[in-house]
Amino acid sequence: MTATEQKSGGSSVLANSAVMAAGTMFSRLSGFLRSALLVAALGSGLHADVFNIANTVPNMLYILLAGGVLNAVLVPQLVKAQKNDADGGAAYTDRIITLAGLFLGVVTVILVLGAPLLMRLYLGADWYTADNKAQLESAIDFARWCLPQVFFYGMFVLVGQVLNARGSFGPMMWAPIANNIIAISTLVIYLVVFGPSNVGGFTTGQETLLGLGSTLGIVLQFLLLLPVLHKTGVRFRPRFDFRGAGLSQTGRLAVWTVLFVVVNQVAYTIVVRLSSNGASKEDVGYTVYSNSFLVTQVPHSIITVSLATAILPLLSRHGAAGELPELGRTLSHQLRNALALVIPLAAVIPVLAEDIAHLLFGYGAGADTFQLYAPTLSVFAAGLVFFTIHYLLLRGFYSLEQNRTVFFIQCSVAATNIVAALLLTRAFSAEHTAAALAGAYSLSYLVGSVVSYVVLKRTLGDLDGRGLLAFLARLLMVTVVAAVAAWLLRTGLGLINDEPTMVLALIGAAIVGALHLGMLLLGAQAAQVKELTTMVQQVARRLRR
User: Fold this and answer.
1) Which residues make Cβ contacts (< 8 Å) with residue 187, sequence separation at least 6?
2) Reported pTM
3) What is the spatial distance between Cα 267 and Cα 110, in angstroms, rounded to a whole number?
4) What are the backbone angles phi and psi of residue 144, rounded to the nearest 5°?
5) Which residues in the chain show pLDDT less than 50?
Protein backbone atom coordinates (compact mmCIF):
# COMPACT_ATOMS: atom_id res chain seq x y z
CA MET A 1 0.00 0.00 0.00
CA THR A 2 1.39 3.43 -0.97
CA ALA A 3 1.73 6.40 1.36
CA THR A 4 -1.08 8.15 -0.50
CA GLU A 5 -3.37 5.15 -0.06
CA GLN A 6 -2.50 4.92 3.62
CA LYS A 7 -3.32 8.57 4.10
CA SER A 8 -6.55 8.19 2.17
CA GLY A 9 -7.48 5.10 4.17
CA GLY A 10 -6.76 6.85 7.45
CA SER A 11 -8.79 9.91 6.43
CA SER A 12 -11.66 7.64 5.41
CA VAL A 13 -11.56 5.88 8.79
CA LEU A 14 -11.65 9.20 10.64
CA ALA A 15 -14.48 10.53 8.46
CA ASN A 16 -16.58 7.37 8.83
CA SER A 17 -15.84 7.29 12.55
CA ALA A 18 -17.00 10.90 12.89
CA VAL A 19 -20.32 10.15 11.14
CA MET A 20 -20.93 7.10 13.31
CA ALA A 21 -19.83 8.87 16.49
CA ALA A 22 -22.29 11.70 15.84
CA GLY A 23 -25.13 9.26 15.25
CA THR A 24 -24.18 7.20 18.28
CA MET A 25 -23.94 10.30 20.46
CA PHE A 26 -27.46 11.43 19.58
CA SER A 27 -28.69 7.87 19.99
CA ARG A 28 -27.10 7.61 23.41
CA LEU A 29 -28.45 10.98 24.53
CA SER A 30 -31.97 9.96 23.57
CA GLY A 31 -31.28 6.60 25.22
CA PHE A 32 -30.37 8.36 28.44
CA LEU A 33 -33.64 10.27 28.34
CA ARG A 34 -35.44 6.97 27.84
CA SER A 35 -33.62 5.42 30.81
CA ALA A 36 -34.29 8.45 33.00
CA LEU A 37 -38.00 8.33 32.18
CA LEU A 38 -38.08 4.59 32.81
CA VAL A 39 -36.59 5.07 36.28
CA ALA A 40 -38.97 7.99 36.90
CA ALA A 41 -41.91 5.75 35.99
CA LEU A 42 -40.86 2.44 37.55
CA GLY A 43 -38.01 3.17 39.98
CA SER A 44 -34.79 1.16 40.18
CA GLY A 45 -35.83 -1.92 42.15
CA LEU A 46 -37.89 -5.07 41.70
CA HIS A 47 -40.81 -3.28 40.04
CA ALA A 48 -38.52 -1.94 37.33
CA ASP A 49 -36.74 -5.28 36.93
CA VAL A 50 -40.05 -6.91 35.98
CA PHE A 51 -40.12 -4.92 32.75
CA ASN A 52 -36.40 -4.40 32.19
CA ILE A 53 -35.44 -8.08 32.35
CA ALA A 54 -38.28 -9.08 30.02
CA ASN A 55 -37.34 -6.30 27.61
CA THR A 56 -33.65 -7.25 27.70
CA VAL A 57 -34.18 -10.95 26.98
CA PRO A 58 -34.99 -10.41 23.24
CA ASN A 59 -31.72 -8.57 22.68
CA MET A 60 -29.81 -11.27 24.55
CA LEU A 61 -31.46 -13.99 22.49
CA TYR A 62 -30.88 -12.17 19.21
CA ILE A 63 -27.19 -11.91 20.09
CA LEU A 64 -27.14 -15.57 21.08
CA LEU A 65 -28.89 -16.77 17.94
CA ALA A 66 -27.53 -14.50 15.24
CA GLY A 67 -25.84 -11.34 16.51
CA GLY A 68 -22.27 -12.58 16.58
CA VAL A 69 -22.46 -13.97 13.06
CA LEU A 70 -24.04 -10.83 11.64
CA ASN A 71 -21.66 -8.43 13.36
CA ALA A 72 -18.31 -10.18 13.12
CA VAL A 73 -18.49 -12.54 10.15
CA LEU A 74 -20.58 -10.88 7.46
CA VAL A 75 -18.66 -7.66 6.82
CA PRO A 76 -15.46 -9.42 5.66
CA GLN A 77 -17.52 -11.90 3.63
CA LEU A 78 -19.66 -9.20 2.03
CA VAL A 79 -16.55 -7.19 1.14
CA LYS A 80 -15.06 -10.31 -0.48
CA ALA A 81 -18.26 -11.01 -2.42
CA GLN A 82 -18.44 -7.43 -3.69
CA LYS A 83 -14.82 -7.63 -4.84
CA ASN A 84 -14.72 -11.13 -6.29
CA ASP A 85 -18.24 -11.97 -7.54
CA ALA A 86 -19.25 -10.98 -11.05
CA ASP A 87 -22.53 -9.49 -9.81
CA GLY A 88 -20.84 -7.41 -7.10
CA GLY A 89 -22.10 -9.70 -4.35
CA ALA A 90 -25.82 -9.22 -5.15
CA ALA A 91 -26.72 -12.93 -5.14
CA TYR A 92 -24.71 -13.58 -1.99
CA THR A 93 -26.51 -10.71 -0.24
CA ASP A 94 -29.94 -11.98 -1.36
CA ARG A 95 -29.21 -15.47 -0.03
CA ILE A 96 -27.96 -14.17 3.31
CA ILE A 97 -31.03 -11.96 3.83
CA THR A 98 -33.39 -14.77 2.84
CA LEU A 99 -31.74 -17.33 5.08
CA ALA A 100 -31.56 -14.98 8.06
CA GLY A 101 -35.19 -13.92 7.66
CA LEU A 102 -36.43 -17.52 7.60
CA PHE A 103 -34.32 -18.53 10.59
CA LEU A 104 -35.22 -15.53 12.74
CA GLY A 105 -38.91 -15.77 11.89
CA VAL A 106 -39.24 -19.42 12.92
CA VAL A 107 -37.18 -18.96 16.09
CA THR A 108 -39.18 -15.90 17.15
CA VAL A 109 -42.49 -17.78 16.94
CA ILE A 110 -41.05 -20.62 19.07
CA LEU A 111 -39.74 -18.16 21.67
CA VAL A 112 -43.08 -16.35 22.04
CA LEU A 113 -44.90 -19.65 22.57
CA GLY A 114 -42.32 -20.79 25.12
CA ALA A 115 -42.10 -17.54 27.09
CA PRO A 116 -42.96 -19.00 30.54
CA LEU A 117 -40.26 -21.67 30.26
CA LEU A 118 -37.78 -19.22 28.77
CA MET A 119 -38.06 -16.77 31.68
CA ARG A 120 -37.00 -19.50 34.11
CA LEU A 121 -33.50 -19.13 32.67
CA TYR A 122 -33.28 -15.48 33.67
CA LEU A 123 -35.23 -15.19 36.91
CA GLY A 124 -33.86 -16.38 40.23
CA ALA A 125 -35.69 -18.70 42.62
CA ASP A 126 -37.02 -15.79 44.71
CA TRP A 127 -39.27 -14.78 41.82
CA TYR A 128 -41.19 -18.04 42.13
CA THR A 129 -42.34 -17.46 45.71
CA ALA A 130 -45.87 -16.46 46.68
CA ASP A 131 -44.72 -12.93 47.60
CA ASN A 132 -43.59 -12.24 44.03
CA LYS A 133 -46.41 -13.96 42.15
CA ALA A 134 -47.74 -10.73 40.63
CA GLN A 135 -44.27 -9.66 39.49
CA LEU A 136 -43.62 -13.07 37.90
CA GLU A 137 -46.89 -13.01 35.94
CA SER A 138 -46.16 -9.52 34.66
CA ALA A 139 -42.61 -10.51 33.66
CA ILE A 140 -43.98 -13.37 31.53
CA ASP A 141 -46.61 -11.12 29.95
CA PHE A 142 -43.95 -8.54 29.10
CA ALA A 143 -41.79 -11.28 27.58
CA ARG A 144 -44.61 -12.24 25.20
CA TRP A 145 -44.95 -8.62 24.10
CA CYS A 146 -41.21 -8.11 23.68
CA LEU A 147 -39.93 -11.38 22.18
CA PRO A 148 -40.99 -10.48 18.59
CA GLN A 149 -38.12 -7.99 18.82
CA VAL A 150 -35.72 -10.90 18.19
CA PHE A 151 -36.71 -10.97 14.50
CA PHE A 152 -36.48 -7.20 14.03
CA TYR A 153 -33.20 -6.86 15.95
CA GLY A 154 -31.67 -9.46 13.67
CA MET A 155 -32.96 -7.98 10.43
CA PHE A 156 -31.90 -4.47 11.51
CA VAL A 157 -28.32 -5.56 12.15
CA LEU A 158 -28.19 -7.66 8.98
CA VAL A 159 -29.31 -4.79 6.76
CA GLY A 160 -27.02 -2.43 8.67
CA GLN A 161 -24.02 -4.65 7.99
CA VAL A 162 -24.89 -4.82 4.30
CA LEU A 163 -24.87 -1.00 4.30
CA ASN A 164 -21.56 -0.90 6.22
CA ALA A 165 -19.94 -3.22 3.67
CA ARG A 166 -21.04 -0.77 0.97
CA GLY A 167 -19.51 2.20 2.80
CA SER A 168 -22.78 3.57 4.23
CA PHE A 169 -22.08 3.76 7.98
CA GLY A 170 -24.36 6.54 9.20
CA PRO A 171 -27.91 5.10 8.91
CA MET A 172 -27.29 2.17 11.25
CA MET A 173 -26.06 4.59 13.91
CA TRP A 174 -28.91 7.07 13.45
CA ALA A 175 -31.89 4.70 13.14
CA PRO A 176 -31.92 3.72 16.87
CA ILE A 177 -32.83 7.33 17.66
CA ALA A 178 -36.28 6.61 16.20
CA ASN A 179 -36.56 3.62 18.53
CA ASN A 180 -35.71 5.85 21.48
CA ILE A 181 -38.27 8.45 20.39
CA ILE A 182 -40.98 5.77 20.38
CA ALA A 183 -39.82 4.55 23.82
CA ILE A 184 -39.72 8.09 25.20
CA SER A 185 -43.22 8.82 23.89
CA THR A 186 -44.49 5.57 25.40
CA LEU A 187 -43.04 6.41 28.81
CA VAL A 188 -44.41 9.96 28.76
CA ILE A 189 -47.88 8.54 28.02
CA TYR A 190 -47.37 5.98 30.80
CA LEU A 191 -46.48 8.68 33.34
CA VAL A 192 -49.46 10.81 32.32
CA VAL A 193 -51.97 7.95 32.35
CA PHE A 194 -50.70 5.76 35.22
CA GLY A 195 -48.21 7.92 37.15
CA PRO A 196 -44.95 6.78 38.81
CA SER A 197 -44.84 3.65 40.97
CA ASN A 198 -42.09 1.36 42.25
CA VAL A 199 -44.06 -1.48 43.86
CA GLY A 200 -46.19 -4.45 42.86
CA GLY A 201 -46.99 -5.97 39.50
CA PHE A 202 -48.57 -4.35 36.44
CA THR A 203 -52.12 -4.11 35.11
CA THR A 204 -53.04 -5.41 31.66
CA GLY A 205 -53.18 -1.85 30.34
CA GLN A 206 -49.73 -1.02 31.69
CA GLU A 207 -48.27 -4.20 30.21
CA THR A 208 -49.83 -3.51 26.81
CA LEU A 209 -48.60 0.07 26.65
CA LEU A 210 -45.02 -0.66 27.74
CA GLY A 211 -44.66 -3.94 25.83
CA LEU A 212 -46.19 -2.74 22.57
CA GLY A 213 -44.31 0.58 22.66
CA SER A 214 -41.01 -1.19 23.23
CA THR A 215 -41.48 -3.56 20.30
CA LEU A 216 -42.78 -0.91 17.90
CA GLY A 217 -39.55 1.05 18.40
CA ILE A 218 -37.44 -1.91 17.26
CA VAL A 219 -39.71 -2.45 14.25
CA LEU A 220 -39.37 1.19 13.21
CA GLN A 221 -35.57 1.29 13.42
CA PHE A 222 -35.43 -1.70 11.04
CA LEU A 223 -37.93 -0.22 8.58
CA LEU A 224 -35.96 3.02 8.37
CA LEU A 225 -32.99 1.18 6.85
CA LEU A 226 -34.93 -0.28 3.93
CA PRO A 227 -35.09 2.92 1.81
CA VAL A 228 -31.36 3.45 2.41
CA LEU A 229 -30.65 -0.13 1.33
CA HIS A 230 -32.55 0.49 -1.91
CA LYS A 231 -30.66 3.76 -2.44
CA THR A 232 -27.28 1.97 -2.25
CA GLY A 233 -28.30 -0.22 -5.16
CA VAL A 234 -29.44 -3.38 -3.35
CA ARG A 235 -32.54 -4.82 -5.01
CA PHE A 236 -33.41 -7.70 -2.72
CA ARG A 237 -34.98 -10.79 -4.24
CA PRO A 238 -35.57 -13.89 -2.09
CA ARG A 239 -33.25 -16.74 -3.07
CA PHE A 240 -33.42 -20.26 -1.72
CA ASP A 241 -30.54 -21.83 -3.66
CA PHE A 242 -28.28 -22.00 -0.61
CA ARG A 243 -26.39 -25.19 -1.45
CA GLY A 244 -23.14 -24.64 -3.33
CA ALA A 245 -23.66 -20.89 -3.35
CA GLY A 246 -20.51 -19.83 -1.52
CA LEU A 247 -21.98 -19.83 1.98
CA SER A 248 -19.74 -22.62 3.29
CA GLN A 249 -16.91 -20.28 4.31
CA THR A 250 -19.40 -18.05 6.14
CA GLY A 251 -20.77 -21.17 7.83
CA ARG A 252 -17.34 -22.32 9.01
CA LEU A 253 -16.59 -18.90 10.44
CA ALA A 254 -20.07 -18.73 11.96
CA VAL A 255 -19.56 -21.93 13.98
CA TRP A 256 -16.84 -20.33 16.08
CA THR A 257 -18.67 -17.04 16.32
CA VAL A 258 -21.82 -18.82 17.52
CA LEU A 259 -19.77 -20.64 20.15
CA PHE A 260 -18.23 -17.28 21.12
CA VAL A 261 -21.69 -15.79 21.60
CA VAL A 262 -22.99 -18.84 23.48
CA VAL A 263 -20.16 -18.54 25.99
CA ASN A 264 -20.85 -14.83 26.40
CA GLN A 265 -24.57 -15.30 26.85
CA VAL A 266 -24.16 -18.12 29.35
CA ALA A 267 -22.12 -15.72 31.45
CA TYR A 268 -24.65 -12.91 31.01
CA THR A 269 -27.58 -15.19 31.85
CA ILE A 270 -25.91 -16.00 35.17
CA VAL A 271 -25.36 -12.27 35.76
CA VAL A 272 -29.06 -11.55 35.10
CA ARG A 273 -30.15 -14.33 37.48
CA LEU A 274 -27.83 -13.10 40.23
CA SER A 275 -28.91 -9.50 39.75
CA SER A 276 -32.60 -10.46 39.78
CA ASN A 277 -32.10 -12.02 43.21
CA GLY A 278 -30.45 -8.80 44.39
CA ALA A 279 -33.50 -6.80 43.35
CA SER A 280 -35.91 -9.19 45.07
CA LYS A 281 -34.06 -8.71 48.37
CA GLU A 282 -32.64 -5.18 48.49
CA ASP A 283 -33.87 -3.42 45.30
CA VAL A 284 -30.30 -3.20 43.93
CA GLY A 285 -30.41 -5.59 41.02
CA TYR A 286 -30.65 -5.71 37.26
CA THR A 287 -31.98 -2.18 36.70
CA VAL A 288 -29.12 -0.60 38.67
CA TYR A 289 -26.61 -2.90 36.97
CA SER A 290 -27.89 -2.34 33.42
CA ASN A 291 -28.38 1.43 33.74
CA SER A 292 -24.89 1.82 35.21
CA PHE A 293 -23.49 -0.26 32.37
CA LEU A 294 -25.37 1.94 29.88
CA VAL A 295 -23.79 5.10 31.31
CA THR A 296 -20.24 3.80 31.32
CA GLN A 297 -20.58 2.34 27.83
CA VAL A 298 -21.24 5.74 26.26
CA PRO A 299 -17.52 6.44 25.67
CA HIS A 300 -17.14 2.93 24.26
CA SER A 301 -20.11 3.33 21.93
CA ILE A 302 -19.16 6.78 20.68
CA ILE A 303 -15.42 6.25 20.42
CA THR A 304 -14.47 2.59 20.24
CA VAL A 305 -17.38 1.12 18.28
CA SER A 306 -17.20 3.94 15.74
CA LEU A 307 -13.47 3.37 15.22
CA ALA A 308 -13.79 -0.42 15.15
CA THR A 309 -16.67 -0.43 12.66
CA ALA A 310 -14.88 2.00 10.38
CA ILE A 311 -11.52 0.20 10.41
CA LEU A 312 -12.82 -3.37 10.05
CA PRO A 313 -13.09 -3.22 6.23
CA LEU A 314 -9.57 -1.70 6.10
CA LEU A 315 -8.20 -4.35 8.46
CA SER A 316 -9.95 -7.04 6.40
CA ARG A 317 -8.22 -5.81 3.25
CA HIS A 318 -4.82 -5.89 5.01
CA GLY A 319 -5.58 -9.39 6.27
CA ALA A 320 -6.71 -10.67 2.87
CA ALA A 321 -3.54 -9.26 1.28
CA GLY A 322 -1.29 -10.79 3.94
CA GLU A 323 -0.11 -7.33 5.07
CA LEU A 324 0.33 -8.29 8.72
CA PRO A 325 2.75 -5.50 9.74
CA GLU A 326 0.41 -2.89 8.24
CA LEU A 327 -2.55 -4.50 10.00
CA GLY A 328 -0.70 -4.34 13.31
CA ARG A 329 0.29 -0.69 12.85
CA THR A 330 -3.24 0.32 11.91
CA LEU A 331 -4.73 -1.47 14.90
CA SER A 332 -2.13 -0.13 17.35
CA HIS A 333 -2.71 3.41 16.13
CA GLN A 334 -6.47 3.18 16.55
CA LEU A 335 -6.04 1.59 19.98
CA ARG A 336 -4.03 4.61 21.12
CA ASN A 337 -6.62 6.97 19.65
CA ALA A 338 -9.40 5.22 21.56
CA LEU A 339 -7.55 5.01 24.89
CA ALA A 340 -6.52 8.68 24.70
CA LEU A 341 -10.20 9.51 25.23
CA VAL A 342 -11.50 6.48 27.12
CA ILE A 343 -8.95 6.46 29.98
CA PRO A 344 -9.52 10.11 31.03
CA LEU A 345 -13.28 9.61 30.86
CA ALA A 346 -13.06 6.41 32.92
CA ALA A 347 -10.99 8.25 35.53
CA VAL A 348 -13.54 11.03 36.05
CA ILE A 349 -16.63 8.80 36.22
CA PRO A 350 -16.01 7.70 39.87
CA VAL A 351 -15.47 11.34 40.84
CA LEU A 352 -18.84 12.37 39.40
CA ALA A 353 -20.71 9.09 39.91
CA GLU A 354 -23.28 10.40 42.40
CA ASP A 355 -23.86 13.59 40.42
CA ILE A 356 -24.33 11.58 37.21
CA ALA A 357 -26.83 9.30 38.95
CA HIS A 358 -28.63 12.31 40.43
CA LEU A 359 -28.98 14.00 37.04
CA LEU A 360 -30.03 10.87 35.15
CA PHE A 361 -32.09 8.88 37.62
CA GLY A 362 -33.16 11.27 40.40
CA TYR A 363 -36.71 11.80 39.19
CA GLY A 364 -40.16 10.47 40.02
CA ALA A 365 -40.07 6.92 41.42
CA GLY A 366 -36.24 7.06 41.44
CA ALA A 367 -35.87 10.31 43.39
CA ASP A 368 -34.94 8.59 46.66
CA THR A 369 -32.74 5.82 45.28
CA PHE A 370 -30.33 7.44 42.79
CA GLN A 371 -27.43 7.13 45.28
CA LEU A 372 -27.59 3.36 44.77
CA TYR A 373 -26.00 3.81 41.34
CA ALA A 374 -22.75 5.47 42.47
CA PRO A 375 -20.78 2.36 43.57
CA THR A 376 -21.72 0.40 40.45
CA LEU A 377 -20.86 3.30 38.12
CA SER A 378 -17.46 3.63 39.77
CA VAL A 379 -16.59 -0.04 39.42
CA PHE A 380 -17.78 -0.22 35.82
CA ALA A 381 -15.44 2.66 34.90
CA ALA A 382 -12.37 0.43 35.29
CA GLY A 383 -13.95 -2.24 33.12
CA LEU A 384 -14.54 0.32 30.38
CA VAL A 385 -10.78 0.62 29.74
CA PHE A 386 -10.17 -3.12 29.61
CA PHE A 387 -13.22 -3.74 27.44
CA THR A 388 -12.04 -1.08 24.97
CA ILE A 389 -8.66 -2.80 24.58
CA HIS A 390 -10.21 -6.25 24.23
CA TYR A 391 -12.88 -5.09 21.78
CA LEU A 392 -10.45 -3.41 19.39
CA LEU A 393 -7.94 -6.26 19.48
CA LEU A 394 -10.65 -8.74 18.52
CA ARG A 395 -11.18 -6.76 15.30
CA GLY A 396 -7.65 -7.85 14.36
CA PHE A 397 -8.56 -11.53 14.75
CA TYR A 398 -11.82 -11.07 12.81
CA SER A 399 -9.99 -9.38 9.93
CA LEU A 400 -7.77 -12.48 9.71
CA GLU A 401 -10.85 -14.74 9.96
CA GLN A 402 -9.39 -16.33 13.12
CA ASN A 403 -12.77 -16.77 14.78
CA ARG A 404 -11.66 -19.98 16.45
CA THR A 405 -8.96 -18.08 18.33
CA VAL A 406 -11.50 -15.45 19.39
CA PHE A 407 -13.72 -18.18 20.82
CA PHE A 408 -10.99 -19.58 23.06
CA ILE A 409 -10.00 -16.09 24.22
CA GLN A 410 -13.62 -15.34 25.08
CA CYS A 411 -13.82 -18.55 27.06
CA SER A 412 -11.26 -17.08 29.45
CA VAL A 413 -13.33 -13.89 29.71
CA ALA A 414 -16.62 -15.69 30.33
CA ALA A 415 -15.10 -18.14 32.83
CA THR A 416 -13.56 -15.27 34.79
CA ASN A 417 -16.85 -13.38 34.76
CA ILE A 418 -18.87 -16.36 35.97
CA VAL A 419 -16.48 -17.38 38.75
CA ALA A 420 -15.94 -13.79 39.91
CA ALA A 421 -19.70 -13.04 39.83
CA LEU A 422 -20.53 -16.07 41.95
CA LEU A 423 -17.75 -15.37 44.46
CA LEU A 424 -18.27 -11.61 44.73
CA THR A 425 -22.06 -11.76 45.13
CA ARG A 426 -21.57 -14.25 47.97
CA ALA A 427 -18.82 -12.16 49.56
CA PHE A 428 -20.91 -8.98 49.66
CA SER A 429 -24.42 -8.31 50.96
CA ALA A 430 -27.45 -8.10 48.66
CA GLU A 431 -27.35 -4.28 48.60
CA HIS A 432 -23.97 -4.50 46.82
CA THR A 433 -25.10 -7.06 44.24
CA ALA A 434 -24.89 -4.69 41.26
CA ALA A 435 -21.45 -3.35 42.24
CA ALA A 436 -20.15 -6.89 42.79
CA LEU A 437 -21.32 -7.93 39.34
CA ALA A 438 -19.68 -4.82 37.86
CA GLY A 439 -16.45 -5.89 39.57
CA ALA A 440 -16.71 -9.33 37.98
CA TYR A 441 -17.21 -7.71 34.58
CA SER A 442 -14.16 -5.48 35.00
CA LEU A 443 -11.97 -8.34 36.16
CA SER A 444 -13.06 -10.55 33.24
CA TYR A 445 -12.08 -7.96 30.64
CA LEU A 446 -8.78 -7.30 32.35
CA VAL A 447 -8.05 -10.97 31.69
CA GLY A 448 -9.46 -10.70 28.16
CA SER A 449 -7.39 -7.66 27.20
CA VAL A 450 -4.14 -9.27 28.39
CA VAL A 451 -4.82 -12.60 26.67
CA SER A 452 -6.00 -11.03 23.39
CA TYR A 453 -2.97 -8.71 23.24
CA VAL A 454 -0.47 -11.50 23.86
CA VAL A 455 -2.05 -13.84 21.30
CA LEU A 456 -2.51 -11.19 18.60
CA LYS A 457 1.05 -9.90 19.03
CA ARG A 458 2.31 -13.45 18.53
CA THR A 459 0.14 -13.75 15.40
CA LEU A 460 1.14 -10.43 13.80
CA GLY A 461 4.72 -10.33 15.01
CA ASP A 462 4.40 -6.81 16.41
CA LEU A 463 1.81 -4.45 17.88
CA ASP A 464 4.22 -1.61 18.67
CA GLY A 465 4.34 -2.67 22.32
CA ARG A 466 7.06 -0.20 23.31
CA GLY A 467 5.27 2.70 21.69
CA LEU A 468 2.01 1.67 23.34
CA LEU A 469 3.60 1.42 26.80
CA ALA A 470 5.31 4.80 26.42
CA PHE A 471 2.00 6.33 25.35
CA LEU A 472 0.14 4.75 28.29
CA ALA A 473 2.76 5.96 30.78
CA ARG A 474 2.38 9.56 29.61
CA LEU A 475 -1.40 9.39 29.42
CA LEU A 476 -1.81 7.78 32.86
CA MET A 477 0.46 10.36 34.47
CA VAL A 478 -1.59 13.20 33.01
CA THR A 479 -4.90 11.49 33.79
CA VAL A 480 -4.05 10.80 37.45
CA VAL A 481 -3.10 14.43 38.06
CA ALA A 482 -6.31 15.68 36.42
CA ALA A 483 -8.51 13.14 38.24
CA VAL A 484 -6.99 13.92 41.66
CA ALA A 485 -7.58 17.65 41.10
CA ALA A 486 -11.19 16.91 40.12
CA TRP A 487 -11.69 14.69 43.18
CA LEU A 488 -10.34 17.37 45.55
CA LEU A 489 -12.70 19.94 44.08
CA ARG A 490 -15.68 17.54 44.19
CA THR A 491 -14.88 16.71 47.83
CA GLY A 492 -14.73 20.41 48.69
CA LEU A 493 -18.09 21.06 47.03
CA GLY A 494 -19.56 18.10 48.94
CA LEU A 495 -18.42 19.61 52.25
CA ILE A 496 -20.20 22.85 51.37
CA ASN A 497 -23.44 21.12 50.42
CA ASP A 498 -23.77 17.37 50.94
CA GLU A 499 -27.34 17.20 49.55
CA PRO A 500 -27.34 19.38 46.43
CA THR A 501 -30.45 20.06 44.40
CA MET A 502 -30.63 18.91 40.79
CA VAL A 503 -29.47 22.34 39.58
CA LEU A 504 -26.54 22.47 42.02
CA ALA A 505 -25.53 18.92 41.09
CA LEU A 506 -25.45 19.95 37.43
CA ILE A 507 -23.43 23.10 38.14
CA GLY A 508 -21.03 21.20 40.40
CA ALA A 509 -20.52 18.42 37.86
CA ALA A 510 -19.89 20.98 35.11
CA ILE A 511 -17.27 22.80 37.21
CA VAL A 512 -15.50 19.61 38.23
CA GLY A 513 -15.63 18.27 34.66
CA ALA A 514 -14.23 21.54 33.30
CA LEU A 515 -11.33 21.40 35.77
CA HIS A 516 -10.60 17.79 34.82
CA LEU A 517 -10.66 18.64 31.11
CA GLY A 518 -8.48 21.72 31.55
CA MET A 519 -5.89 19.90 33.61
CA LEU A 520 -5.94 17.04 31.12
CA LEU A 521 -5.32 19.28 28.11
CA LEU A 522 -2.53 21.19 29.84
CA GLY A 523 -0.91 17.95 30.93
CA ALA A 524 -1.28 16.43 27.45
CA GLN A 525 0.55 19.41 25.95
CA ALA A 526 3.34 19.20 28.51
CA ALA A 527 3.74 15.40 28.27
CA GLN A 528 3.31 15.39 24.48
CA VAL A 529 0.37 13.01 24.38
CA LYS A 530 -0.02 13.61 20.66
CA GLU A 531 -3.00 11.28 20.24
CA LEU A 532 -5.05 13.52 22.52
CA THR A 533 -3.73 16.91 21.43
CA THR A 534 -4.18 16.05 17.75
CA MET A 535 -7.82 15.14 18.23
CA VAL A 536 -8.43 18.34 20.21
CA GLN A 537 -6.85 20.39 17.42
CA GLN A 538 -9.03 18.66 14.81
CA VAL A 539 -12.18 19.40 16.82
CA ALA A 540 -11.10 23.03 17.31
CA ARG A 541 -10.54 23.46 13.56
CA ARG A 542 -13.99 22.04 12.80
CA LEU A 543 -15.62 24.40 15.32
CA ARG A 544 -13.90 27.43 13.80
CA ARG A 545 -15.31 26.67 10.34
Assistant:
1) 34, 37, 38, 40, 41, 213
2) 0.79
3) 23
4) -65, -40
5) 1-11, 14, 245, 543
